[in-house]
Amino acid sequence: GITLEDVNTPLNITETQRAADTTTLGMIAGDWVMNVTGVAAENAATVNAAAHVANFSVATNAAGVANNLVALGGSPKLLSITLDNPGSLLSLTAASLLTTGNLAAVQKIDNGYSLAVSAATVANLTDLAEIDNVASIGIADSSANLSDKFDDLIDLGAQLMEVSLTAPSVPLALTYEQVVAGADVLAKIPGGSYMV
User: What angle do CA 51, 54, 55 make, to 5 degrees?
Assistant: First the structure.
C-alpha cells in the first residue's frame, strides 16, 4: 500500500487523474482526502459520492450547468463552477432556479454569468429580486395574479421579456393609470386583453 506522510493535507488532483488512477488511489492507506478539479457537470453526483473526495470544482459551459443543475445543487462537496465562456447567459425556469440547493450551486459560478429566468409567477418576483445577475424574466401566470401585481411587472422594466397568460380568455382587471403606465407590459402579452 501507499502511506501518506500527512493525511490532513488533501491531495489536489484533476478529474482526469482521479478517473485514470483509481487503482493507485485505492492503494493509499488511512483516512485521507482529495480535492478534485476539472469535473464535468454531468459527473458531479458521481464525484460527490466518491470516497475520499473533500470537495470538487466543476468546469463546464452554461448548458452543462442548466442540464445538470439538480446534481450540482445536490452536491454538498461542490466548491466552485468555472464556465468555459465567462459571463455566459444561463437559461433556467424559476422553479428550477428557486429549488433548494440549485440557487446555491449557480451562485458558486466564479467567473461571471447572467440569468434568463422563464416560467416565473408573480409570486416568484420577490425571490427573484433578491438574486444578483438576473438579466431577464419571463412570466407565466393567471390574469387574476397578473392584475393584482401589475405594478410589479411595470417596475421590472426592460428586465421583463415576456408574459404568458395561463388562461388567455380571461382579461386583466386594470386601472386606467396602469394601462397608460404599463403599455410596454401589455405589449408583451400575446393575445391578452384587459378591462378598465
Answer: 115
User: Is the separation of the CB atoms in 97 and 103 below 8 Å?
Assistant: yes
Location of C-alpha cell 470516497: 51
12 has a pLDDT exceeding 80: yes
Task: State whether residue 150 is helix, strand or coil.
Answer: helix
CA atoms within 13 A on the CB side of 12: 2
The separation between the first and the last C-alpha atoms of the chain, rounded to the nearest angstrom, is: 80
- The predicted-structure confidence for 77-93, as pLDDT tens digits, reads as follows 999 999 999 999 999 99
- Residue identified by cell 422594466 is 157
Residue whose C-alpha cell reads 454538498 in the numeric block:
76
Rounded to an integer, what distance in angstroms lies between the CA atom of residue 155 and that of residue 150? 9
The three grid cell numbers given for residue 26, joined into one nine-digit string: 485505492
Task: Give per-residue pLDDT as tens, 58-74.
Answer: 999 999 999 999 999 99
Confirm if 140 and 147 have CB atoms less than 8 A apart. Answer: no
pTM, entire model: 0.88
